[in-house]
Amino acid sequence: MHINVIGAGLAGCETAYQIAKRGIRVKLYEMKPQKKSPAHKSDLFCELVCSNSFKADRVSSAAGLLKEEMRRLDSLLLKAADKARVPAGGALAVDREIFSKYVTDVIRNNENIDIISEEVTEIPEDGITVIATGPLTSDSFAEKIYDRFGSAMSFYDAAAPIVTLDSVDLDIAFFESRYGKGDGTDYLNCPMNKEEYEIFYEALVNAERAPVHDFDVRDPRVYEGCMPIEIMAQRGHDTIRFGPMKPVGLTDPRTGHRPWAVLQLRKENSQGTMFNLVGFQTNLKFGEQKRVFSLIPALKNAEFVRYGVMHRNTFLNSPKVLNSDFSTKINGNIFFAGQITGVEGYMESASSGIIAGINAQRALKGENTVLLPDTTVIGSLSRYIADEKVKDFQPMGANFGILPELENRPRDKKLRGEAYADRALADLDKYLEDVML
Questions:
Q1: Same domain, yes or no, for 77 and 187?
Q2: What is the pLDDT of residues 338-389, one digit of tens each?
Q3: Chain-centre distance of CA 28, in angstroms?
């Protein structure tokens, strides 16, 4: 007996790991290195093509609570993240190469996982299959999914540029985390005064964008969480100054005052030699990225080791296609996992892989599938993607808004987050003890 898992991204690797650790063989299909999507560059599994941050780490935040729930479910990716961690203030960020290599090594060395390096172009009809091909599903396989399940949508995602530390002007830029969080070296801040911001803003909104490639033409929608900086800027003169370039919580040591606007750079690797432009996902032409972003004084001589790119993300209209256990409504032997289900974010994607893996192996053994308590972030996300009352389905990330309301809701935001976390983890521990996953 075996289970097919298609795709060795974040969700696929979590799925394969959860199945294999329970003694069931996995046939893991991955088209790399023979074929890559336009956004993928590495031959390793679990390649991070957008940010290297997994969002907030504190358990009293929705993103942090999600990660703690995953740890209690023995998440492979969080083990990798701990090995690959780089300083990022209150966030969990990783060195991409170390992270992907750790996961790849664990998967390749698992005796219960057979890796098949080829592109899947047909949905398997026999046995149990988990489709975790992600938001960059190949065109040929995406067409099979559309044909089989009849309802899918897509949106656009964008990645931010990366620059070298040596090329940043450290006479202008300064290390500091907002409000003094972290050890003070997690973020490198590029301050701007009002005149500098005005020049940069005008160049940004008038810059030339890259053409949308053929692989990106299906039903274009831009997801708010990865909105290109140039699109966001067009919404208003100060939109980005109150968004990714907000200066609050920072003091420019040159002036002793808060800057007019700030671009934050975050460590991209463990050595701290590369930094990404936080919140600067973009679809500008490469030459325009160099020209416009170099108008930020601290980046006037910046060396760009990767320019931002924009690519298509595909996801199912899951309320019509999926059950809360990630099986499909028309065939209980076919499961989906990852961002293709409409969960948004690295860890959200991985968490769905954990649940899909657990449920796929339970289905193989003839056992009832499981659904975590709705007080947990994972349980609520599972329910959201299958909620038929959601009419205009869009990707959803971890947030407290999808959880049941607290009985005695604290007014203080920090205390409220702690109350959500305490309830969720208590319910999860009891559930795991009763169900013995």
A1: no
A2: 999 999 899 999 999 999 999 999 999 999 999 999 999 999 999 999 998 8
A3: 21
CATH code for the domain of 260: 2.40.30
Number of domains in the chain: 2
Look at the alpha carbons of 289, 291, 295, 300 in this order and tell me if their dihedral is positive or negative: positive
Are residues 280 and 323 located together in one domain of the fold?
no
Same domain, yes or no, for 73 and 189?
A: no
The candidate with the shortest Cα–Cα distance to 375, out of 406, 346, 332, 353, is 406
Domain boundary residue, one of 308, 332, 361 = 308
Tokens 């992907």 correspond to 100
Q: Are residues 146 and 197 in the same domain?
A: no
271-320 pLDDT, tens digit each? 788 899 999 999 999 999 999 999 999 999 999 988 888 777 788 999 99
Domain span at residue 331? 2-153+313-435
Q: At which of 292, 308, 324 does a domain end? A: 308
Domain holding 83: CATH number?
Answer: 3.50.50.60
91 and 58 together in one domain? yes
Question: To which residue do tokens 């199912």 refer?
Answer: 316
Confidence band of 44 (pLDDT split at 50, 70, 90): very high
